[in-house]
Q: What sequence folds into this?
């Protein structure tokens, strides 16, 4: 019986029973029943069987399902050994959602989509063999990490590894434009190309001249950023990967750009169709100066990028607005206009209530913590990637007079619950770092030379984490508590230490570092100052117990690492980033990213099947009190959690704020004297400022749960789902 002709769909009914309490209790056992029926009635009868493993590989290669090259790097006796090991681990999905998501979205199928050609073990084997690149020792280490779900490659990597007909392994891209028609044209072409090959695209528009700026000395000739936004939106809509999914993009604009009010207005539901952008995401690049002006209830000046570039000799994004603000205000050669800072602050919160946008990039915070020579000017579609860029100079033939550096994102994630059970935390992270390094080494985005160039110079990766709330609940720790914050800091300190150690080892093996390592804070040792002067190990008795079987680097260990890095360098310019996660967290039977759960029983709507329910991992009578919905959680607890991790993460993290249109009683002390319990722009202003003062680099969506049980700003970032 083929997949398109399955008669027994009772697993959906069993899964839906989870949402129907019986005798006042959640019927968690129904999910396990649904899983068994799904495997029995859907998976087993619709999976093609082979007489031997050798026959299976021969069939897949002969019919162009998988590539030949990576398989031939191994003697087949080793592949058999690898499979024997994987099978001996007796992997089983723990929930219906995990199995369903894997087989529907990730498992290789026949060309007619009627039969499965692989199970989870097969997909792990493809990843292991591909990313180990013939290294049998690394292959076995990766097999250990992936079959025990301590490591999860990003969706594009996990899905495409080994396939003959595939997309790229990278998750997303960041490009910027400068203030001329050649670069704008090149940017639109780049957006088309990058959307075609997969992944979301972030584009920085801050350098473009504002509406009303002169063109060839003709005053008022420039149309500003909005027409370019419309062109980009149409480009993403057109370049949609053969109709498989809508192209996805985000445009970033500096908050001191004169078009900022129109930029935000373009996302309003009642905006004129001529300017409204429906599918394009919006992000604001926010220097420290904006927070200062809001705090002082002062006017703020918006500066023409056209005149700023002519005065400073560099694009607008590369001028330090906070440092130069007063000079810009008093310079008569700089075109400017004045608005009230708090009016703009309120407009931002109002739009976040309505749409979830804009994302907020605290750019000065990002650059203060940046150990790399150069400047961060933007982020990506999910706001967790922050790397230095250099602008390109494009000539009249659309070629490059000066090839700049743009960014591709090579992402993967640790599963916190499972990694904490690893027999050797450091060895596990080392294997993950090497797998991600393979992706950056073999990524070749030649359709956009600036992205290709940036990747070849930086070798950047982004290792993150998922399952924090799962781990805390499993261990009876409340999310956002002192113990939870302590645990989060130590966990990400360990990721930082071991990714640094492994990157240093790779640099020593290859006698190669990332470009301009010698100009970084790693090279002069200053990056390590905070680690060689303070013990970052666990503080509380409870957290010390959790890490009792994990080696915690001492100050002396950090000193030795500092000396090693200063001597031999690092291979990877960037190493860590925490993406929002998506369907891949379900396959890992864990909670997404490091934010709280949405619901104890999460309801997912699948377009072809209707509603599917996913009980929080390890949900039981014992863990129930520790699973509070994000919508009932004080967002300062979330911000504090991310801040604890951020101090160890060299890039950023996708921090979503979860709000209710009617705020629960006593959640925020400032609401006690408010005349309304409804969410207001003031609430968002307070929380956004709190995040800034806690050192948060970026804020992703604001998701609002309305009184009629709808979600605003709940779009899922498919590109950076890990």
A:
């Amino acid at each position: 019986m083929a997949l398109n002709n399955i008669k027994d769909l009772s697993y959906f009914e069993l899964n839906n029973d989870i949402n129907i309490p019986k005798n006042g209790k959640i019927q968690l056992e129904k999910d396990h029943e649904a899983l068994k029926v799904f495997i029995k009635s859907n998976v087993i009868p619709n999976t093609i069987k082979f007489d031997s493993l050798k026959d299976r590989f021969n069939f897949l290669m002969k019919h162009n399902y998988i590539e030949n090259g990576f398989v031939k790097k191994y003697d087949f006796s080793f592949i058999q050994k690898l499979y024997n090991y994987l099978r001996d681990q007796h992997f089983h999905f723990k929930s219906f959602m995990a199995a369903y998501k894997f087989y529907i979205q990730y498992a290789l199928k026949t060309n007619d989509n009627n039969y499965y050609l692989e199970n989870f073990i097969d997909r792990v084997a493809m990843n292991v063999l591909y990313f180990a690149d013939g290294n049998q020792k690394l292959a076995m280490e990766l097999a250990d990490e992936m079959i025990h779900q301590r490591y999860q490659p990003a969706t594009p990597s996990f899905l495409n590894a080994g396939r003959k007909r595939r997309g790229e392994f990278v998750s997303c891209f960041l490009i910027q434009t400068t203030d001329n028609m050649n670069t704008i044209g090149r940017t639109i072409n780049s957006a088309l190309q990058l959307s075609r090959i997969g992944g979301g695209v972030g584009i920085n528009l801050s350098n473009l001249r504002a509406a009303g700026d002169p063109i060839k000395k003709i005053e008022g000739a420039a149309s500003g950023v909005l027409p370019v936004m419309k062109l980009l939106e149409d480009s993403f809509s057109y370049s949609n990967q053969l109709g498989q999914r809508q192209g996805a993009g985000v445009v970033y604009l500096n908050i001191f750009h004169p078009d900022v009010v129109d930029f935000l207005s373009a996302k309003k539901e009642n905006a004129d169709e001529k300017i409204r952008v429906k599918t394009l995401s919006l992000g604001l690049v926010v220097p420290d100066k904006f927070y200062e002006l809001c705090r002082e209830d002062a006017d703020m000046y918006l500066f023409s990028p056209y005149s700023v570039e002519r005065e400073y000799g560099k694009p607008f994004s590369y001028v330090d607005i906070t440092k130069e603000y007063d000079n810009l205000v008093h310079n008569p050669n700089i075109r400017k206009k004045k608005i009230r800072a708090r009016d703009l602050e309120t407009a931002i919160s109002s739009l976040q209530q309505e749409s979830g946008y804009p994302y907020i990039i605290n750019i000065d915070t990002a650059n203060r913590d940046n150990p790399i020579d150069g400047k961060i000017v933007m982020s990506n579609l999910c706001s967790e990637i922050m790397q230095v860029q250099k602008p390109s100079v494009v000539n009249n033939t659309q070629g490059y007079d000066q090839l700049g550096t743009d960014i591709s994102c090579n992402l993967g994630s640790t599963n916190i619950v499972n990694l904490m059970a690893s027999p050797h935390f450091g060895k596990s992270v080392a294997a993950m770092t090497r797998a991600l390094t393979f992706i950056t080494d073999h990524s070749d985005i030649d359709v956009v030379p600036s992205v290709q160039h940036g990747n070849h110079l930086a070798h950047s990766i982004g290792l993150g984490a998922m399952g924090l709330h799962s781990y805390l609940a499993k261990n009876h720790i409340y999310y956002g508590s002192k113990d939870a914050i302590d645990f989060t800091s130590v966990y990400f300190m360990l990721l930082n230490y071991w990714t640094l150690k492994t990157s240093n080892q790779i640099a020593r093996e290859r006698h190669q570092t990332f470009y301009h390592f010698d100009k970084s804070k790693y090279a002069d040792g200053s990056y390590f100052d905070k680690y060689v002067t303070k013990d970052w190990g666990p503080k509380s008795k409870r957290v010390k117990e959790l890490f009792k079987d994990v080696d915690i680097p001492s100050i002396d260990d950090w000193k030795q690492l500092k000396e090693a890095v200063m001597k031999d360098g690092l291979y990877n310019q960037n190493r860590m980033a925490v993406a929002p996660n998506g369907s891949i967290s379900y396959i890992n039977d864990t909670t997404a990213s490091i934010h709280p759960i949405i619901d104890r029983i999460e309801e997912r709507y699948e377009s072809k099947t209707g509603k599917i329910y996913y009980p929080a991992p390890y949900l039981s009578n014992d863990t129930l009190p520790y699973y509070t919905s994000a919508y009932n959680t004080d967002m300062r607890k979330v911000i504090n959690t991310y801040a604890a991790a951020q101090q160890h993460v060299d890039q950023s993290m996708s921090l979503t704020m979860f709000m209710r249109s009617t705020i629960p009683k006593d959640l925020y002390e400032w609401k006690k004297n408010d005349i309304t319990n409804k969410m207001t722009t003031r609430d968002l202003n307070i929380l956004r400022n709190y995040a800034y003062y806690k050192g948060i680099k970026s804020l992703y969506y604001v998701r609002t749960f309305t009184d009629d049980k709808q979600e605003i700003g709940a779009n899922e970032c498919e590109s950076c789902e890990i």
Q: What stands out?
A: Residues 482-510 form the longest helix (29 residues). The longest strand covers residues 249-254. The mean pLDDT is 94.
